[in-house]
UniProtKB/TrEMBL annotation:
Protein name as it appears in the record: DUF4398 domain-containing protein
Domain named DUF4398: residues: 25-98
Stretch forming the signal peptide: 1-17
Domain of life from the UniProt record: Bacteria
Keyword Signal attached: yes
Assigned keywords, A-Z: Signal
InterPro entries per UniProt: DUF4398
Length: 121
């Protein structure tokens, strides 16, 4: 009976053990950070980029201490922060282009009014 109990306890403990993240998980997070940098996150969303890098560094520490569930969680959050940084960078670039086009439209409007002496509306 005692042997059966020990076998059951051992199998229960091993089934509750967290699964070690695959190396591809870290690679994926690193690639997401690199994509954010290419998208201009260092300029447009440095906070999110910093969070992504910090989460990945914490995940590596979690691996050292065999905290695999925590490491997986942090890897996912690193990727999410990277994606957020990419989207914020894209939004900032679109806003900049829209602002530039608005200025160009205003210049054209003023030129039209000077040339033809009437409002363009």
């Amino acid at each position: 009976m005692r042997l059966l109990f020990l076998i059951a306890l051992t199998s229960l403990l091993t089934s509750c053990a967290s699964v070690k993240p695959q190396p591809e998980a870290f690679t994926s997070a690193e690639q997401a950070i690199a994509a954010a940098v290419r998208a201009g996150a260092e300029q447009h969303s440095p906070v999110e980029l910093r969070f992504a890098r910090e989460k990945l560094a914490e995940a590596r520490k979690g691996m050292e201490y065999k905290q695999f569930d925590k490491a997986l969680y942090l890897i996912e959050h690193s990727e999410i922060n990277s994606e957020l940084a990419i989207e914020k960078s894209r939004t900032a670039e679109v806003r900049a282009r829209l602002g530039e086009q608005a200025r160009e439209n205003e210049i054209l409007r003023e030129d039209f009014e000077r040339t033809f002496g009437e409002s363009f509306e």
